[in-house]
Recover the amino acids of this structure.
């Protein structure tokens, strides 16, 4: 197929998808008032902003992360913002038992669950992979296995409430890139597992929806430190990313993309592989 024909078809598809997006259901913040929500990885960045948005919308929330001292401060802010209830539980997702403990705590304290937002990630270096397989195994436990464990544990409670699992993933789980090999592997695993689980739940006529959120570069402090000197492209605000995550979950979308370019890059990936690779080698900088 000639390149010009590909471009025409690609442009037509993009236009149709934009029209479909704007004709979809509308989101009401009021619909989340009183909803019972568990948010993981809520001590910083996107997870922190997700918790604040839910609080402002009047939800009942349980937040979790490793740092108890930080969680205590965030609970007070969530209550000040308008959360009907705000509780925390410190947990380390490298420990598989902690995943179970978090769900049990949230279900007991909130007397059920409506939303589970899976957002936590393990810290990982940015740069050429050094061949450390043990680190990959550890990161897979934090970024993938614990997500599966929490989802499985929460499914019975979510079935009772027509609930939702919201999985925060990344463009790096859709599109291969240098400098983040272990991280990208965990995100590809998330997209594969939860994308497949969407189909199985639908086939079982389950009440539970799964939303996978594909995020591009977000301006969290951690991300900005890691990419400095490696990537030359704009970052988008964490508070807006958090709002889009919540909105997508409330509308029970299968997939959500933020910022706008992430969806089109996933299409570009398969339609124009040569230009995809040239783009990657332009925006990423190798520093030996």
């Amino acid at each position: 197929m000639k390149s010009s024909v590909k471009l025409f078809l690609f442009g037509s598809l993009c236009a149709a998808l934009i029209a479909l997006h704007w004709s979809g259901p509308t989101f009401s913040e009021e619909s989340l008032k009183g909803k019972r929500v568990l948010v993981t990885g809520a001590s910083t960045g996107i997870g922190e902003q997700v918790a604040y948005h839910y609080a402002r919308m009047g939800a009942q929330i349980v937040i979790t992360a490793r740092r108890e001292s930080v969680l205590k401060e965030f609970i007070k802010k969530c209550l000040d913002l308008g959360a009907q209830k705000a509780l925390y539980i410190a947990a380390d997702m490298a420990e598989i038992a902690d995943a179970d403990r978090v769900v049990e705590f949230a279900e007991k304290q909130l007397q059920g669950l409506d939303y589970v937002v899976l957002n936590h990630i393990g810290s990982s270096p940015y740069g050429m992979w050094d061949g450390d397989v043990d680190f990959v195994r550890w990161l897979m436990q934090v970024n993938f296995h614990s997500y599966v464990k929490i989802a499985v544990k929460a499914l019975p409670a979510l079935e009772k409430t027509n609930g939702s699992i919201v999985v925060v993933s990344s463009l790096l789980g859709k599109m291969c890139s240098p400098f983040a090999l272990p991280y990208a592997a965990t995100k590809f695993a998330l997209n594969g597992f939860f994308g497949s689980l969407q189909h199985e739940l639908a086939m079982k006529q389950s009440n539970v929806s799964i939303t996978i959120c594909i995020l591009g570069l977000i301006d969290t402090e951690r991300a900005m430190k890691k990419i400095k000197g490696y990537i030359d492209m704009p970052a988008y605000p964490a508070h807006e990313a958090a709002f889009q995550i919540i909105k997508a979950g409330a509308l029970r979308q299968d997939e959500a993309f933020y910022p706008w370019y992430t969806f089109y890059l996933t299409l570009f990936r398969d339609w124009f592989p040569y230009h995809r690779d040239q783009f990657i080698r332009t925006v990423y900088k190798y520093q030996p």
Notes: The chain has ten helices and seven strands. The mean pLDDT is 90. Residues 218 and 224 are 8 Å apart (CA to CA).
